[in-house]
Amino acid sequence: MAEETIAQFLTSEGGMAIGAGIAMGLGAIGAGWSQGSIGAAAMGAAAERPELESKMILYIALPEIIALLGFVIAFLLIGQIGGAH
Fold it and tell me: Which of 11, 18, 55, 73 has the most beta carbons within 10 angstroms of its beta carbon?
């Protein structure tokens, strides 16, 4: 019985599902990590030079693209395996 369960995950559809989870998970972790370090540096710079505050908001928002791309890749992979019926 355990071999049948493992065999189900070793199909191409199972691989795509695992890949979708990895893409979404690592994309979110990477975006959070980079936003944390960029946010700390940006707030320190904005405290010293308030005129840089508008530029810093852009730098804080840029890592969200990483999470969005991870979501798009996961969405495309799930669409390939027929999970989006």
Answer: 73
